[in-house]
Amino acid sequence: MEWTDEGIVLGVRRHGESSAIVELLTRGHGRHLGLVRGGAGKRMRPVLQPGNSVRAVWRARLDEHLGYYVIEGLRLRAATVLASSHAVYGVTHLASLARLLPERDPHEDIYEMLDRTLDDFDDIGEAAVHLVKFELAMLAELGFGLDLENCAASGETSDLIYVSPKSGGAVSRAAGAPWRDRLLRLPAFLRPSGGGSNGWSDQDLQDGFRLTGMFLLRHVLEPRGQGHSDARDGFINAVTKYRAKVAVP
């Protein structure tokens, strides 16, 4: 058995004296592990860092075997990522989300979205927006997508500013007014209109993380006996501190 694919490094663990077991999210073969001979050595260590994009050749005698990787670096983001705490937390959290996908099951749209998200960590606010959208996409990929296109109560498609915590459906301003204290807020950057080029505020970021966080816990994490990763909390705290700092006149 042999295939060649592009992948994103999710994690690495040492195996023996010099080898490493590498976990990739690949474009066409999903989340896939393989053994890299010499993967713990100095030459390969910079390549096998979480968040890096690589080209991988996987070989095994049988498809169900762990197999061996031969890996070549394509975009080595790790050096840039390590320069900022929010990016370190963000990449770690994104990897933990990708691990929710079943092994060896292709999810090309998620791969493409992860690739774009990892390329946009320079701006901390935009990184936060992309991370919320990635969490939302993961909910949909795992079968728990939220309906944010139409009002769950009236069917309207405009002025959607709330989300029902029960159904996960959007709710319009008018329909949600009597129950606004019980509804989740739908941030501007998740509305059908998109909110424009600067369509988010600090409150929007908080609302976005609260929204996706609640549904991830309820539908995905708690049924598996898990909670949110420490990296998610670290990323949110880093964003909050940074935004508070730059807001000081």
UniProtKB/TrEMBL annotation:
Q: Which GO terms describe its cellular component?
A: bacterial nucleoid
User: Which Pfam family, any one of them, does this sequence belong to?
Assistant: RecO_C
Record bears the keyword DNA damage: yes
In its UniProt record, which GO terms are filed under biological process?
DNA recombination; double-strand break repair
- Occurrences of domain DNA replication/recombination mediator RecO N-terminal (ranges): 1-68
- Kindly state which keywords UniProt assigns to this record, in alphabetical order: DNA damage, DNA recombination, DNA repair
Read off the InterPro entries from this record. Answer: ARFGAP/RecO, DNA_rep/recomb_RecO_N, NA-bd_OB-fold, RecO, RecO_C
Give the protein's function.
Involved in DNA repair and RecF pathway recombination.
Q: Which family does it belong to?
A: Belongs to the RecO family.
UniProt-listed HAMAP family: RecO
The protein depicted here goes by the name DNA repair protein RecO
Q: Which gene encodes it?
A: recO
